[in-house]
Amino acid sequence: MKIAKEIQKRNYDKRHGAKEHKELEKDDRVWITNEKKEGIVKRQRIRKGRQRTRSYLVETENGNDIKRNRYHLKKLPDKDMDSRIETENKGTEEPNNQARKRKRERPTYLNDYC
């Protein structure tokens, strides 16, 4: 019976694209997909009788607290990581590609046209 249940779960997850999300820690920066805002995780809700639920309390940029499931939260890289990437990319500016434009010629069939 247990094997059949595991097979059903695997097939359902495969068909519906279900995947395990890593748990978020307190003070992680997240993108709230349905709000299109950035936020910071304050805590994960814990209920009696259960180890963990899927919901997180998130503080948004304007200071509001909202509760969202893990599905709606995408972890963002740390701010110090963003600044490190910006400093690395400053010296690697791409050259100006305007000189490589394709030369356009008039089609030959229009030469007979007056």
From TrEMBL:
Biased composition (Basic and acidic residues): 75-93
Top-rank lineage group of the source organism: Eukaryota
Region (Disordered): 1-24, 45-114
Protein name: Uncharacterized protein
Source species: Popillia japonica (Japanese beetle)
